Amino acid sequence: MKATQIVLASRPVGIPAFENFKFEVIELPELKEGEVLIQPTFISVDPYMRGRMNDAKSYTPPYQVNEPILGGIVGLIIESRNSRFKSGDMVQGTLPWATRIIHDGKGIQKIDTSLAPASYYLGILGMPGLTAYFGLLEIGQPKPGETIVISGAAGAVGTVVGQIAKIKGCHVVGIAGTDDKVKLLKEQFGFDEAINYKSSKNLRKDIKAACPTDVDIYFDNVGGEISDAVFANLNFKSRVIVCGQISLYNETRMQLGPRFLPIVLTRSVLVKGFIVRDYADHFPEGIKQLSTWVRDGKLTYKETIVKGFDRLPEAFLGLFAGQNQGKMLVQVE
Ligand code: NDP
Predict the structure, then answer these.
(1) Ligand 1 centroid to 223 CA: how many Å?
(2) pLDDT for 249-264, tens place per residue?
(3) Which of 18, 126, 259, 283 is buried most deeply by CB count within 10 Å?
């Protein structure tokens, strides 16, 4: 049986491009004892994957040139020689970008599609949802009446953070890159205010206007100048959750920004970075709460679905051009 896979053709310098990816047709061997054959249904594209394209030390090892790109996948078991799985099971895991995958079953989990659609396990009930849940609740410690600002607000993580903050009684302000996203945040996701950072003439002042009592919690998905503008508006004893720095992922030179530690010092600010898997022991609790909120209609969810395996690179590159609202996914047809 043949399959198509996508490998890292070369390491990007700056913004990734199509030539950094290569499609290959491979011949799959017969299944061995203990193995399963998976047909992917949805493949996730995530900003962190940009870091894995570099040959640099990080919390996940770099992709290797001429080796398949690995990412979050949900798929159907179409053949099994592993007693843990049967044909027809839906599973999720970190798997190679391929149209058919032979796997030994280690590290993949069955998903319950009667609870939620399969794609949700890559978004609101998966890594991005858990990132929002643990980052906000464990580090942010939101209290009713507090003001939270979220950058990258209209994406997979940001939309969930904003809604959980509303559940917790906060005044919620989102920052995003288009007027449509601003409208979406206010109308679909219940944000109190939203700011388009691309059209803002003075982001620092616009944040001040949206946060009359200053910012108690900043959930940072983007870093860079947007974060500089939020830092200037931080309150005493505020918390900064450093979740992502997407505005810097494609930089080729170290950026210099304002020296913000005097603000951290004089306003007793907590600044804490985290990686979602720091909370891995508590994932079942997070998934249970998120799925309850989804079932009860307290969390709504949006996906941008690009159709076709061959459009994976396009969908991934689209993250850096802000082409998604909510979670960006590829549906394998
Ligand atoms: P998103 O769904 O938010 O997609 C990325 C969005 O980032 C784009 O839609 C775009 O929105 C915005 N963006 C892209 N380039 C820039 C830029 N130069 N400046 C400002 N905004 C930009 O992604 P996720 O929700 O999956 O991830 C959000 C962040 O959280 C990322 O930084 C990611 O790396 C991080 N993350 C961290 C985790 C952790 O464990 N710490 C786990 C998961 C994600 P716009 O139109 O608004 O510009």
Answers:
(1) 10
(2) 999 998 889 999 999 9
(3) 126
Non-local (6+) Cβ contacts of 265 within 8 A are: none
Helix (H, G, I), strand (E, B) or coil at 6: strand
> pLDDT per residue over 191-215, tens digit each?
999 999 999 999 999 999 999 999 9
Whose C-alpha lies nearest to ligand 1, atom 43? 128
Atom in ligand 1 nearest the alpha carbon of residue 323: 9
Structure tokens at 316: 């991934």
> Mind listing the pLDDT tens digit for each residue in 28-73?
999 999 999 999 999 999 999 999 999 988 888 999 999 999 999 9
Residue of minimum CA distance from atom 22 in ligand 1: 247
- Tell how far the Cα of 237 is from the centroid of ligand 1, in angstroms: 26
Atom nearest to 250 CA in ligand 1: 18
pTM over 0.90: yes
